[in-house]
Amino acid sequence: METIYYLRKLFSGSYIESNNLNYSIYPDMSAYLLEDEKKMVNQVIVVSHLTKKFGDLSAVDNISFEVQGGEVFGILGPNGAGKTTTIRMLTGVISPMSGEISILNQSMPRDAVVIREKIGVLPETANVYGDLTGIQNLHLYGKLYGLGNKVMRERSENLLREMSLYEQRNQIAKTYSKGMKQRLSLAMTLMSQGRILFLDEPTSGLDPKSALQIRGVISGLAASQRTILLTTHNMKEAEELCDRVAIMNHGRIAAVDTPGNLRSAFQERQSVVIEFSSSPDIDEIRSISGVKEVTSTGSRVRCYASDPGEVLIQLVNHARKNKLRILHAQTESASLEDVFLDLTKEGE
Questions:
Q1: 3-class secondary structure, 26
Q2: How many domains does the chain have?
Q3: Cβ distance 347 to 78 under 8 Å?
Q4: Which of 19, 181, 263, 341 lies most in the core, judged by the most C-beta atoms within 10 Å?
Q5: Which domain holds residue 299?
Q6: Which of 243, 264, 285 is the endpoint of a domain?
């Protein structure tokens, strides 16, 4: 079980005693940075030419990126892109074949014990212990992290309330739903109050209500200046949570930027959406200057164009000429999903 393996590695050395600290759920982590860490706050994670192979399969292929202090950085990619393998290397679960990983100016895996004192990890699969109650799971992690009894109890109760699990705190965890287990798993991760959080597919497979709740918790953590690296294939989640995203496919990084900049860079995916009173002649619309692609459903037409404003003017002229009434019209920029599909379509 990967969770047990990670815990053994996590607590294989000394750890920080935190008995006298009484953080809130979302403390401002900048207050606890050491002087040498403050110097590195702009680049808390630096990955250089990271590679991992399993036999002939290049799971991660020579990737490089940096994560800034206090930002939410997303690795976005389809299943099998290499996201989880990257997280496992960054957290010291597996070792890279080549490349370098620097976390808070320390090297992983060389300084793994020291680094693990400063991070929290939410694995892809909920890591709860089914034969323990919810609160016993949190107490177990609190003891492993060296928390005093008072801090451990207070933090456990606060997190259970935050995750809407307080009423179920004394229930055996194996009776929890999938969403409840994932919320409990995130609470266990937050017992350490690590300065950097690694969240692997935090909302994968959850119902909309549970996913929304976990995204709300992540937003609260981001507001407290935690540095968060998360993986996801959920476009809405990436747009909502991430300051920057790396789009990953077949083990390689295709692009790294803010969601807004990535959308702006794909001008050919800008579009005009227009609905007429009756179905237009699609061939005539395709012939309009500047139109690159047309999709339609009945009287509703989407025209992709680099200059959607100019195309909209021509569509209005087309409607007047053909005595078509326009019921609705708007221009739309490229969505992150458009960018993602374009960058990951090669080799599909």
A1: coil
A2: 2
A3: no
A4: 181
A5: 271-332
A6: 264
Residue 337 amino acid letter: E
> What DSSP letter does each residue of 273-335 carry, written as one string?
EEEESS---HHHHHTSTTEEEEEEETTEEEEEES-HHHHHHHHHHHHHHTTPPEEEEEEEPPP
| Residue 49: strand, helix, or coil | strand
Mark whether 256 and 324 lie in a shared domain: no
Note whether 235 and 311 are same-domain residues. Answer: no
Reduce the DSSP state of residue 58 to 3 states and report it.
strand
What are the residues facing 69 on neighbouring strands? Answer: none
Are 189 and 310 members of one domain?
A: no
Query: Which residue, of 264, 281, 309, is where some domain finishes?
Result: 264
Look-up of token digits 């326009």: 326
pTM of the model: 0.78
278/254 same-domain check: no
Q: Which residues of 44-78 are buried (b: 16+ CB within 10 A; e: fewer)?
A: bbebeebbbeeeeebbbbebebebebbbbbbbbbe
